[in-house]
Amino acid sequence: MVADHQGRERQGGISRFVADMLERDAVKLPRRQFLHLAAGAAALTAVSRIASAQAYPTRPVRIIVGFAAGGGYDIIARLIGQWLSERLGQPFVIENRPGAATNIATQVVVNAAPDGYTLLLIGPTNTINTTFYRNLHFDFIRDIAPVSSITRQPQVMLTNPSFPAKTIPELIDYAKANPDKVNASSPGVGSISHLALELFKMMAGVKLAHVPFGGNGPALTALFGGQVEVSVASLPSSIESIRTGKLHGLAVTTAMRAEALPDVPAVGEFVSGYEVSAWYGMGTPTGTPPEVIDKINKEINAGLADTKLKARIADFGGTPFALSPAQFGKFIAEETEKWRKVIRAANIKPV
């Protein structure tokens, strides 16, 4: 680590020396010679940056997670962290910073040095928060650089088995005949499950009464007990109840059916254009060298092609979601705009 620091100092010293020399002697040199030397200084900086990226990482890397240990974000962070540790030879340490709907964790990473040694496990909550919270001390799209997408998985629209509607078309007909009388639970206001429900209401033209809870567990408990008729929940939290018949899976929210539940249709089979995914990816402070970002992206994508890691992801109902940093950035921008429209149309505000 000391040697690495000294190496960076030497590289920086060389670059500063050349820059100082050029500035001092600029008036004395012919223009062509000055431009030639300036290009050489730029090339030297680029070479040292590439060399630094090739050596990355030379010390432990933090992956900041905005939720407590044991949840979906944490599980994915640990799977990818272990893979990166094995591939790159340095520990990728998971640091849970729960609170304020991931905004605390995001602020930690925004404030970190842009050197690739502090990463952020990101998901739809981050794109929702951009519109949902209006007084943030950061701009997520501006301040967090996309590194790599990791996985995506559906939410599931569920009913109590005693509820008369057994399909999405039947739910739509029932809700239109009984506006605002069908109670639908979610893990909380502003959650991906809540917004999936609001998008469904908008696109299907129905009125459902939203009943928010403090997590998937309480929301599903209310569905088990008949306090609500419908719920939208994460696949990992509900899949066993669907398989055992304790809950009825109306549909998954992704564009395609889920491999884990092949007999459960997709909402989009009945409501054209409907698609909602819970997804996970990695970000880092803006200004991180692109060579470092590309190196992490390459290693994560290698993991998503690995049979064992793919199987672990499938255990949680997910599918690999491999994009380049540029593609992932475009996806984040599209998700942010999508949820901005839903939040404003439904007039959703923090509680």
What does this structure look like?
Helices cover 50% and strands 17% of the residues. By secondary structure, the chain is an alpha/beta fold. Strands 1, 2, 3, 4, 5, 6, 7, 8, 9 and 10 form a ten-stranded mixed β-sheet that branches. The protein starts with a helix and ends in a 5-residue tail after the last helix.
Key structural traits:
351 residues; alpha/beta; ten-stranded mixed β-sheet; 13 helices; 10 strands; 50% helix; 17% strand
Q: Are there runs of 5+ residues with pLDDT below 50, and where? A: 1-15
- Which range best describes the helical content: under 10%, 10-25%, 25-40%, 40-55%, 55-70% or over 70%? 40-55%
- Estimate the mean pLDDT confidence: 89
Bin the strand percentage.
15-25%
Order of helices and strands: HHEHEHEHHEHEHEHEHEEHHEH
Distance between the termini: 47 Å
Strands, count: 10
Rounded Rg: 24 Å
**Basic shape:** elongated
Major pleated sheet:
10 strands, mixed
Number of helical elements: 13
Q: State the secondary-structure class.
A: alpha/beta
Give the SSE map.
Layout: H1 2-25, H2 31-55, E1 61-65, H3 72-88, E2 92-96, H4 103-110, E3 118-122, H5 124-132, H6 140-143, E4 144-159, H7 168-177, E5 183-186, H8 192-204, E6 209-212, H9 216-224, E7 230-234, H10 235-243, E8 248-252, E9 277-285, H11 290-304, H12 307-315, E10 319-320, H13 325-346
Parallel strand pairs: 1-2, 1-3, 5-6, 5-7
Antiparallel strand pairs: 3-9, 4-7, 4-8, 4-9, 4-10
Helix pairs in contact: 1-2, 3-11, 5-13, 8-13
